[in-house]
Specification:
Elements: H1 2-6, H2 9-15, H3 17-34, H4 66-72, H5 81-84, H6 94-107, H7 114-148, H8 152-199, H9 207-210, H10 216-278, H11 282-305, H12 307-312, H13 316-380, H14 383-390, H15 393-449, E1 458-459, E2 465-473, H16 479-482, H17 495-506, E3 525-534, E4 540-543, H18 550-558, E5 568-571, E6 582-585, E7 594-595, H19 596-601, H20 613-625, H21 631-635, E8 641-642, H22 644-647, H23 650-664, E9 668-672, H24 680-692, E10 696-700, E11 712-716, E12 724-728, H25 748-787
Parallel strand pairs: 1-5, 4-10, 4-11, 6-9, 9-10
Antiparallel strand pairs: 2-3, 2-5, 7-8, 11-12
Helix pairs in contact: 3-7, 6-15, 7-8, 7-10, 7-15, 8-10, 10-11, 10-13, 10-15, 11-13, 11-15, 13-14, 13-15, 20-23
Bound molecules: adenosine-5'-triphosphate.
Residues 474, 478-480, 526, 546-552 line the site of adenosine-5'-triphosphate (ATP).
Length: 788
Amino acid sequence: MVVFSKLHPNQQLLLNPSSQRPLLVLLASLLILRSNIFKPFASRSTAPSPPTSTTSNALGLPTLSQSQLAEDAHRFPLPPPTTAAANATPGLGLPFLHQLRSLLRIVLPSLYTREAFLLTAHSTFLVLRTVLSIAVARLDGRIVRDLVSADGKGFLTGLGLWFILAVPSIYTNSMIHHLQSTLAMRFRTRLTRYIHDLYLSSAPHFRYYRVPLPGIDQYITADVDAWAESVAGIYGNLMKPSLDLLLFTSQLAKSLGFRGTLLLFVNYYVTAKILRAVTPSFGRLAAVEARLEGEYRAGVGRVGRESEEIAFYDGGARERDILTRAYLRLIKHVNSIYKIRIAYEWTEDFVIKYLWSAAGYGLIAVPLLITRKRQGSRIADGEGAEAGRRMRKSDADSVVAGRTETYISNRRLLLSLADAGGRLMYAYKDLQEVAGLTGRIYTLLSTLHNLPPLPTALLGDGDTFALKDVDVCVPRHPFASQQPQLDSPEAKPDSQNHLIKTLKTISQPNPDSDSDAFSGPNTTTLVRALTFTLRPGMHLMITGSNGVGKTAVARVLAGLWAPGSSSTLVRPTKGADGRPGVFVIPQRSYHPTGSLLSQVIYPHPVSEFNASAEALHELGGLLYAANLGYLVDREGGWDTVKEWRDVLSGGEKQRLAMARLFYHRPKFAILDECTSAVSSDVEGQMYEHAKSLGITLITISLRPTLTKYHTHLLTLSGDGTGSWTFSRIANAPQAHAHAHAHDDDEEAAPAEHLTRVLEEIRALEARIEESHGWEKRVKELGEELKAK
Ligand SMILES: Nc1ncnc2c1ncn2[C@@H]1O[C@H](COP(=O)(O)OP(=O)(O)OP(=O)(O)O)[C@@H](O)[C@H]1O
């Protein structure tokens, strides 16, 4: 103790256990950072995996199965419409906390994850920074004190310590930023993985097809990114200033005394009250901004996607109007936020920077002035006269130096306190923005979780398609009609409330029916009590006038739409050899970005395709069967990557889709007018090839010429009653099995009759077309005669 007291104050500072604490914390942090916690995920073979893991995906995280996701559904009930919608005011109350907790469980599934380690390290550095700030404030005071008391040695030691402290301070600051960014990225990755697994679920959910949220790309990209950034930031923004406030106040309390500390708290309270009163609803503003951003983004995306069609119509000016209007709506809103912010920031700046600093000066000055006054009055009383005589000049200097030290340290602490207060107020604003974004992401997840499940089809012998009393109805949640149009001024801010209400209605199961959500008094029934059985070799053609429900039948057969209540649907299953039960080729063929090879094998990934010479030769054969034998050479090989949607002609795209069908060789193929742009000779060749591969065809077409490739005909009457006929086509090649329901020889006659009528109509249309030419020629000859 004696030795310690003899040491120079700066040496005492180093030996003091409380001063050693920052150095120890720093050392511990360095050790944590040196460990392999911060190495990239993929490089760690022993990465901790949550109990829900199955197979690992490209994100380095396990893919969540549908059953695992279903277990999660109870955490995402549909919120009341008023709070769920992005446009409602998301407060910071209990609903927000519930939503935030549900999302945090996704991004922080357990304590044994990388995210938890990052969070711990982040917290450690935040604490360290506060401790270092206090050490800096104390050292600052000592340096000035040594300066005032002209202690050169002490001053130089203090300066040395100042530079030593600079090292951990700089390191701590950069680590806080680094860890915050890494944490944000990890949060984003976890949330994105979850949304991908949920949204892109394959059959029987098809959430990506059925989700009724407009501008979903904005939710999944920009909103998730912003949410991850804000949540990772808000932790530091809240924790650091709160800790600062706590520690700085406790430090200040020592020199301010009880009265000063009380005044400090009164100051905090008044400030919080003022700022709360003037803080606008930043959460709601952020949510509306995200929605408007999404609408504008969707508009730009649509123009990119449909550019050719727009160009054919010369619709550039119209599209510019639509986009400009969407952009103006966004900008108007952002501008209004700026205006609201200006007023708020004025108040905030004044209160935090000036009012707090003035209060701080006052708080420091009071004890100093009071002490001096008391000393002055003691001297005036006479008892100080002798003391004054006794006091040497150096003692007086040391009193001044001590006061200066206290003043400088307290002033620095007070300035840091004001800064912490300011950051806490900013954090309040950030927290409101987090609430807005949390509301949006929660809406996305609860919508995805609460889509009514599609009833699973029965499995027969695996090779049969059977329908009994199936009503084909337009689903009650209309996708398109619900989406606000970009160019419509009535793009209501309330659309998401409406969405939640709709989802709530349709997700209430009717005890009498599994699939009541899809049929009922409000739905349109296109086809009633559809009944037939198809077995391999029974090639079915579905016909009927436009809009009668042919594609709707295909959607039910493919499992995209639920069949109506009290019906039976038996679908073929995947074969033991890997052949899919059903494969659909739509009219507008789909071509993802990727190589030519990936176009043929889609949706199989290229990585799983054994691209041996033999396999590629076989694929070449499939292209040849689709009359595309020249394509590989023309495009520069199988690995050529192009925007195939633009590169290939309409007919080529449809033929490539047929090559895709040959590659997958399903048991049943639903061909929805998928050869409408192909010449009839090539079309016939492809149909024959498909049949030779053992594919049973279900063709939707209005072309009578295709009838000859089928054995059965389903005609939708389109008279508004939902009636239909199913019959065997006369002179059709013998099927291996017989049709059910209306399949008998008596009913072959109407099919034959229909085919004849359709062919006659086509012939007459061709003649009418020709007669227009003749009429024109007659007119020309008449005019020539007149001229002569
Ligand atoms: N998602 C949907 N939402 C609302 N209505 C729909 C939806 N899909 C189809 N419909 C309606 O169902 C009816 C049948 O549509 P579908 O596409 O099955 O007709 P189609 O017989 O295939 O016609 P086309 O020969 O013109 O292709 C149409 O009136 C259509 O407006």
